[in-house]
Amino acid sequence: MLNIENVSITFKKGTLDEKKALQNVSLTLEDGDFVTVIGGNGAGKSTLLNIIAGTLKPDEGSVSIDGKDITNIPDYKRASLLGRVFQDPRQGTAADMQIDENLALAKRRGKMHGLAWGITKAERLKYSEMLKEFDLGLENRLTANVGTLSGGQRQAVTLLMATMNSPKVLLLDEHTAALDPKTASKVLSLTDKIVKEGNLTTLMITHNMNDAIRYGNRLIMMSDGKIIFDIKGDEKMKLTVGDLLKKFEESGAEATDKMILSD
Description:
Elements: E1 2-11, E2 19-29, E3 34-39, H1 45-53, E4 60-65, E5 68-69, H2 75-78, E6 82-85, H3 99-107, H4 121-132, H5 151-163, E7 169-173, H6 181-198, E8 201-205, H7 209-214, E9 218-223, E10 226-232, H8 233-237, H9 241-251, H10 257-261
Parallel strand pairs: 3-8, 3-9, 6-7, 7-8
Antiparallel strand pairs: 1-2, 1-4, 4-5, 9-10
């Protein structure tokens, strides 16, 4: 479903601040793979997602989704193939529009705009049912402006917007990092349910080692713009935080207290 071949990108090339953000990275995800991505600051995790999303263009290499080379396709033209949730809950939604209006816009993304643009009663009922699963009180606030919501509530709306059309690839860029632990747990649990039920091919960056181990069928670790560890299936299920710490130590990267202590 997703194929990345020998992708490299260097920032501030030719200057004293030159940074090789990705170095000949190759990665293939099968249909339905749920891959957690972990690594230290500057490892290349978000750069990789930006390359896939099209907000950055690689210096070398190629990106394909479902057999189609999208390397040179601008981000807005590949948006119909992708769903994305950012770390900042303010991204991905229109603050001055209602919850139901945001969801309706996401539902209609990439479709022809006909005369029947209004939100139907059936749609509102469906949106209410979907929001109720988050247990954040959103199911009865469909007409509230998204800008009035808490960070967790807004992230829940963004997650639904990103997944309701079953994207070819779902990109989650530390999408619970800015939330309180209780809300983060709810959003992660619903993320896992949505991904499994929709069989969505997913890349999820996380700073939390426990979450990286707990969720998904595959885990990759990045360091210095390279994938240094790739584990899946039964081997991943046996993985411990201690194993990941050892890999960090071997790579020379520093694991933060937040990565280790987050529960």
